């Protein structure tokens, strides 16, 4: 997910199998000043990226990025 442009960090990720299908729930950090439309577009790109990796279903939740929470996140380099 960090390969997707405008994803600053992955705050949490949960995955599970159901038969041969993979389901992923992820919370990403994005710039806090984005519009809802811009944040939604980033989520769509994350979903497309994860589908290309074989994930059957992806739920993406965007949150505003807060630098003071950095030590608890996986960061985009």
Task: Kindly describe this structure.
The chain has 77 residues and is an alpha+beta fold. It has a single domain, classed as Cation efflux protein, cytoplasmic domain (Alpha-Beta Plaits). The protein has one helix and four strands, in the order ββαββ. Strands 3-2-1-4 form a four-stranded mixed sheet, covered by helices on one side. A hairpin with a 2-residue loop joins strand 1 (9-18) and strand 2. The longest helix has 17 residues, at 36-52. The mean pLDDT is 91.
Low-confidence stretches: none
Label the overall shape: globular
- The named CATH superfamily: Cation efflux protein, cytoplasmic domain
End-to-end CA span: 12 Å
What is the CATH level 1 assignment? Alpha Beta
CA gyration radius, whole angstroms: 12 Å
The overall pLDDT, averaged over residues, is 91
> Strand tally, please?
4
How many independent structural domains? 1
Element order: H for helix, E for strand: EEHEE
How helix-rich are the residues, as a percent range?
10-25%
Strand content: 35-45%
The CATH architecture would be 2-Layer Sandwich
Helical region count? Answer: 1
What labels describe this entry?
globular; alpha+beta; 1 helix; 4 strands; 77 residues; Alpha-Beta Plaits; four-stranded mixed sheet
Fold topology:
Blueprint: E1 9-18, E2 21-30, H1 36-52, E3 57-64, E4 74-75
Parallel strand pairs: 2-3
Antiparallel strand pairs: 1-2, 1-4
Summarize it:
The protein is α+β, with helices and mostly antiparallel strands and 77 residues long.
């Amino acid at each position: 997910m960090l390969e997707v442009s405008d994803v600053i960090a992955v705050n949490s990720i949960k995955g599970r199998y159901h038969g041969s299908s993979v389901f992923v729930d992820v919370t990403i950090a994005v710039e806090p000043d984005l519009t809802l439309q811009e944040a939604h577009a980033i989520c769509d790109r994350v979903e497309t990226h994860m589908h290309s990796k074989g994930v059957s279903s992806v739920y993406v939740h965007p949150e505003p990025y807060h630098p003071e929470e950095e030590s608890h996140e996986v960061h985009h380099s």
